[in-house]
Write a structure and sequence with these properties.
Number of strands: 14
Helix content: 40-55%
Shape: globular
Strand order of the largest sheet: 2-1-4-5-6-7
Number of helices: 12
Oligomer: single chain
Strand content: 15-25%
Length: about 375
Amino acid sequence: MSLISSISVRQFRNFSKYEARFDPGLNLIIGANGTGKSSLLEAISLNALSKSFRVHRDQVCIKEGESYFQTETIWKKGETEHKVQVNYLKDKGKNIIFDDAPLEKFSDLIGYFPLVIQSPENSALTDGGSKEKRNFFDRLFVQSSRTYLYHYQQYHQLLRQRNALLKELKLKKKLQYDPRLEFIDEKMIVPAWQISSFRKEKIQQFSLRFCQAFNESFSRYEAEIRFQPSLNSISFGDYESEFRQRCQKNLESDILLSRSLSGPQSDRFSFLLNRQPLESTASQGERKLWITLMKLSEGEMIAAETEEKPLFLLDDLFAELDLENSFTIVQRILNQQQVIITSTDLADISKHKIDAIEPNLKVLNLP
């Protein structure tokens, strides 16, 4: 069991200095737009996942006019207290201190304090294509399985090397199979197979969990998640053979595009609502319902796989969530071990009846 007890930030986003404490159960962060509600959740994600859920470049998190930022969180895991400190210095980069010792591999932090994040940026999950959907499942799987994290990192390191080599071959106008390319392809086969077979099994489990919850909660809807692997071989031997064949067959296209077309990075997903593509038929409110239930299902799956309930960070949860459907969502949220929700107005929380259901909630008001 992991709980966050407190956070302090310095020179982070719009904060010069700020500290906050959290309780088990439901915590609300209330403040007007621009006061830093999302920034606090972003700082928590930095300390639990080693990176922001909003941006790829840590430097943009530095307060304007400053040269560094620091975020520090205190966690309770079982009976043990842990401290995580993230320091970023402009032109020097980032370091992470875990219990007063430098963390050599940032990835060691992933999954230690499991986290589920819902934010406005998640709209790409229902509006975008397969890339955003792959990213959702990869974030879930790297937190719930160290084995998946290992193979994912190994594969994507090789994929970056392969794409760089493809770009080099394109510049040299060499459209033939290079021995260096063959060497990388051979090394990619095992992690590609591990990723593919893991996804097949776990996405099916997730889909059953999510669709059952969606259909039970909102009986007028029928939800469906479809997964189409880039390579669909059943055995490792067949996968190995098909992977080699695809790499050679797609060689010219790969070089011209400077991008590898075969492998887990090309797996495809479709979300269907009442048997129609979600992105083209669902309303904004229906998409928000979909995302919220996916996030709740994500948390349930992490808990099932790791026997540890995650912390939920729900940014602007009630935007576009109508009152008719919110009660079911609220009930599921209040069953979680620890939740942090942001909102611009406490009246909005009251409108969704949270304060009536959970009178002992913790409220943090940002100035």
